[in-house]
Structure formats: C-alpha cells, structure tokens
C-alpha cells in the first residue's frame, strides 16, 4: 500500500458517519495521533463540510507534559485546527492503577466534546497487542474481539480509522509528510504489560511470523462476529424472561445450559450486579436446575443476594441493623402503598380482609425479628419462623422480613404471610411486603 493513506481512508469512510461533520481528534502529540490529525486536515480539502478540532488531555504525569501541550498547540495553529486542552488530575494511588485511571479520565474528557465524532488513533499493532493482552488475561469472546472501529460514547460516535494500518505504515506516512511528534517516555517502560509485549514479544513474533498482526486481527474479527451473535440471542432470551425487575426462573431453565449462563450474566449486569465469577454463576444455575421448587439456592455477591422468590429471580440488598419504625397508614383507598426507605421495601395495603381498620388507625410498628415470636392463627399460636418458611420466603430474606405490631408490642401481622386472628377483620387491610431491589 502507498505511504499516503488518505485515498484509502477516504474510500473506506464508514457509512454510519455520513452526514456527520464535526470531528474531534484525541491528540496526544505522539506519532499516531499526529498522522491521524494530518489525514483529517487533508481530508477537509476533499470534504469541505468537515470541521476538525482536537483535544489534548493533560494528565500532568510527565515532566514533559507542558511541552506536549505546546507542541499540540503549535501544530494545531499551523493547521488551523481549534485545540481544547483538558487538564485532569490522575490519582497516582488509584486502586485500578495509574494508567487505567488516566485512561478513564481521558475518556471522560472525550465524552465532553461538542463534536459529533471523537476520533482516536489506535492502529493495527495496537489492536494486535490488545487482543493478545486479553488472551493472556483469560478474556472472553467480547474481549478477544478487540477494539471496534466505531462505537458510541456518551452520545458521540467513537471512531478509530487507523485500525487497518500498521505502525510501520504510519511511520512511512509521517516521514513522507515530515511530521513532528513527541515521544512519551512511559511507552518504553517494560514494567507495563503492554510495553513488554510491544518491545519484547512482538518483535520476536514478527521475525518468525511476519503476518502475525493480520492473523490476530482476523481472529478478532471472528470474535466480534461471534460476540454480535451472542448479543442477539441474549437480547431475545432477556426479553422472554424479564418480569419487571425480576427474571422468570421457568423461562431461564427452559433454555439450553449454555444460554442459561449467558442470559443470567447479562441480566445480573442489567441489575447492576457486575463482575460475578462465571464458575459461581454456573454453580448457582446448577443448584436452580437440581433444586426442588421449595428449596432456596442463593448467590451472594458483595452486599446483594440473588434469590428465587415467587417464581422469579430477584436481586435483594442485604441489610444490617434494621430499626423499629412507627408508621401511620393512610387508609383511604382500596390499595395503598407506603415506601419504607430505611427498610428497603414497600408496604402494600389491600382491603380484602386483614388487620381491622380500628387497630390500624392507631398506627403500628415495623420491627425486625428478635427470634421466638408467635402469631395467633385460627389453629392456634404459630412460630413466625415456621410461617415464613411455609410461605417460601428465602432464608436470607427471612432475616430482614418486617413484623407489624401495635404500640404495646402485640404482634399484628407478618406482611405477605399472615395476620393475627386477634385483630383480623373480614373488612380489614391485608399487608404485603415488597422488598426492593
Ligand atoms: N493525552 C491524550 N490526549 C488526547 N488523546 C490521547 C491522549 N493519549 C492518547 N490519546 C488518544 O488515544 C489513542 C490511543 O492511545 P493509547 O493507546 O495510549 O490510549 P488508550 O485510550 O489507553 O487506548 P486503548 O483503548 O487501546 O486502551 C491515541 O492514539 C490518541 O488518539
């Protein structure tokens, strides 16, 4: 291929960018992004509607940071490109590592662009490194698909037009157009895994397998296709099984085992339960498949628990230190809901036989179980613990199930389960307890 990459770039301009005219280049000042900016500035001659701007993210990590800003500024002034300098403060002690935190802040700065398209300069060698890094990290299908050429980012399109070109091609282009760039000294530090691959492993691969980049990129393409197919199947399975915030266990178990795993992970992700080890998900599914209807498999992930509750899977927050709370119901309507934020749930009253209105209008307490409580039922006094068990409330929810009692501490009801015969009225209110996610 010719060292001038512009004809090829113009010919392969993605269809989904047609009609978009405001492009902002992520300009580090290094070789790759200088080549990218040069290409887009030259593309303006052929597509006069293009508005090109640039953003340089100043991380303040290097002693040369100010010099990089000046370099970017002088090139942009020469090429008549407005430059935005975003100063961020990277936490050198960030738990995810300084590089990852810098990257996060960079993407936040990109997301603030007023342009329609954010353009980054990752190329074929970067793609090969990314895929290999993911492989060495044990990444799944999506991770091995590498970086997409186009994706959305906070309402913008993120475009990586140089993925098809090797670093060598960019170097040839830079030489042809006599570009000047800065070198980031941290790129040679082989303590970073990516740099170790770049400087120690890739040259060896290139020596023995000169076409290794194209091969890795081809594998990434296969993976991206497989990943898109999985996404389609998972989206259909999710739509089939979603029930409000819950997920229908029967729909889940009707799927093949492999689809169960994918859809459960996707649903957990939707519910904000990220990063669950796949083997724990598999074990939970195995228990769900084997467990009898009444048994209660649970998956505890940090402060939440995933449980089967009334035929659906639900994610519940585990709560400690629940306190008694006095409440006054507004008994005006047939159905009435009272949110109880400190208990993470909602009391729902329905006038279909339950606590007598006379008792309720004096107010009641919502209190945690202490153990050993009894509730009067038509057949005599019953243990609260047993009633909860018989109602199929999973053990971890039982611990945080509220009791309703009057001001003297007399037990009135176990919401959703039973009302005391002492205060039962056929015209009374039935309490339901709806734990929130
Ligand atoms: N300081 C910066 N300011 C603006 N853009 C930058 C800056 N650093 C990097 N970029 C942009 O991001 C591209 C990729 O750089 P680099 O590989 O260092 O970043 P990354 O965001 O970590 O990439 P990846 O998505 O591969 O993890 C650069 O070619 C450039 O377009």
Automatic annotation (TrEMBL):
One GO cellular component assignment for this chain's record is: cytoplasm
Report the EC number(s), separated by commas if there are several. Answer: 6.3.4.19
Q: Which residues form the Lysidine-tRNA(Ile) synthetase C-terminal domain?
A: 364-433
What subcellular locations does the record give? Cytoplasm
Pfam families the UniProt entry points to: ATP_bind_3, TilS, TilS_C
Answer whether the UniProt record assigns the keyword Cytoplasm to this protein: yes
Per UniProt, the keywords (alphabetical) are: ATP-binding, Cytoplasm, Ligase, Nucleotide-binding, tRNA processing
Similarity comment: family membership: Belongs to the tRNA(Ile)-lysidine synthase family.
- Written domain comment of the UniProt record: The N-terminal region contains the highly conserved SGGXDS motif, predicted to be a P-loop motif involved in ATP binding.
What function is annotated for this protein? Ligates lysine onto the cytidine present at position 34 of the AUA codon-specific tRNA(Ile) that contains the anticodon CAU, in an ATP-dependent manner. Cytidine is converted to lysidine, thus changing the amino acid specificity of the tRNA from methionine to isoleucine.
Name the PANTHER family for this protein: TRNA(ILE)-LYSIDINE SYNTHASE-RELATED
Designated name of the protein: tRNA(Ile)-lysidine synthase
Q: Which organism is it from?
A: Aquitalea magnusonii
